[in-house]
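agent> call fold_tool(seq_1)
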Amino acid sequence: MMDVLENQPAAELIEKIRAKTAKIGVIGLGYVGLPLAVEKAKAGFSVTGFDVQQKKVEMVNLGINYIGDVVDGDLKEVVKSGRLRASSDYDEINNLDAVAICVPTPIDKYKQPDLTYVENTTKEIAKRLHKGMLVVLESTTYPGTTEEVLKPILESTGLKCGEDFFLAYSPERVDPGNKVYKTKNTPKVVGGVTPVCTKVAAELYRNVLEGEVFEVSSPKVAEMEKIYENVFRHVNIALANEMAILCRRMGIDVWEVIEAAKTKPYGFMPFYPGPGIGGHCIPVDPYYLVWKAREYDYHTRFIELAGEINDYMPAYTVERAAEILNSFGKPLNGSKILILGVTYKKDIDDMRESPVLKIIGLLEKNGAKVTYSDPYVPEFAHNEKLYKSVEINAETLQSSDLVMITTDHEKFDYELIYRRSPAILDTRNALKDIKDPKIFKL
């Protein structure tokens, strides 16, 4: 096994990394890429961010932040100092020593992986690949992607992985809105195609981040590790949702059950029910593993069952709304429903895969008149229709037949909501301290 110091291109790149003279690229300036680019620039590296959306490129170059987890001042400082700039010209990759790929990895309508962004990005890198270059994939994907998809494209140039260039996988760990763990202090997992690839990639992250850099034996291990993280949450949220459905039928408050279970100092980790799952990770990533498992003649029943339960929650939420209205002698058809919160989690502006969109669609399909309020989303378009946020005041609340708390933003005035709403479906337990017959839960 070749030692990293025996590989001259690797040794030279590590020396550049330690001296902070290595030029770094980040492709994809979204929720993962922009925070990573800013941290690399803050660490002293010269960073070029790439994005196909010209608007993002222009905003970054003006020091205008559009990602909640990035501190406005940090972005302005690294742009002003010249350590970070953005571009849509891939030819600038020719001058870089390392590139991180942070592009979307969605699923199609059949819930199968769509690696179009990853493949196209890798092809663009291959056109400019040079000796001594490091390429790291951060986008969540199925085990095998780095070696089965990226490596052949990059080696088609005639350069050999592990000798001439270095390839690794290091899964992003971004939790939008988390007030404690950010890109800077979250531990990082790194798995290279060869041991030398691992060492080079790990060296870069150790010179950027404060969190521990944990090396694994291969990209497959790192890819599976990331999927496992999200499957873990996926199935436990499904369990919480199923418990919520059962507890309601049994006349038990599932939230009180969870609070009681939390008192056990071992063997239990709290997960909470809700109107559905959202974000880029949990609704998407488990299906990458489901799809890949078929190649090995294995049916991931547990994961797929969790998916069925979680996918049912928007419909279940609408069913609860109909039941509540019926108890007041009102049909869902024609009722005025005020939705509070359309993002997939609280205190962020991220609507990716938000279950609230499905809820709105189902409510309107059944004839309900839907309005919404969200301090983070002044307007949005969905199914060729434009929705605009309304102000929460006594009039908007009192004129509604049912108010649904679907995202528990801290900015909401819950005292006003409670006092002025005729009936409330609280899907997030935001009004947990108030006991009133007009407050309903999932």
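agent> call fold_tool(seq_2)
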Amino acid sequence: MLQTVGQVFETLSDARTEERVVGERELVEVRAYIQDNIQGTFDILTLADLPGFTKRQFMPRFRKKIHMAPYQYAMQARVRRARDILQDATSIADALFEAGFSDQSHLTRDIRATYGLTPAWYIRQKT
């Protein structure tokens, strides 16, 4: 009887490990999608559907792996992209468009909140 119980626990343990690994690989696909489509909007159902999850399955897996909600991740990805562009670009408008921000005030607010600097600071550093 103990052997049977041990086999059941081993089987369940293997199934959880398999599910976690598959979930991590699929979430990498979602992250890549966000990066590749940074200028667009992200609907949670669309993101969940990419790896074939329901919204209910997707949200906790994403949070567990990435440690934030998908919306927060997308916003941070936009801010990182804008910062990178500002370090190379000649105008704030370039960063605004390429990173998918709707207007300059949102770009300025989010960059300042994340890095403590304004977009204009990055432009001035180039000159």
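agent> summarizing second result for user.
Confidence is low (pLDDT under 50) at residues 14-22. The two ends are 76 Å apart (CA to CA).
agent> awaiting next instruction.
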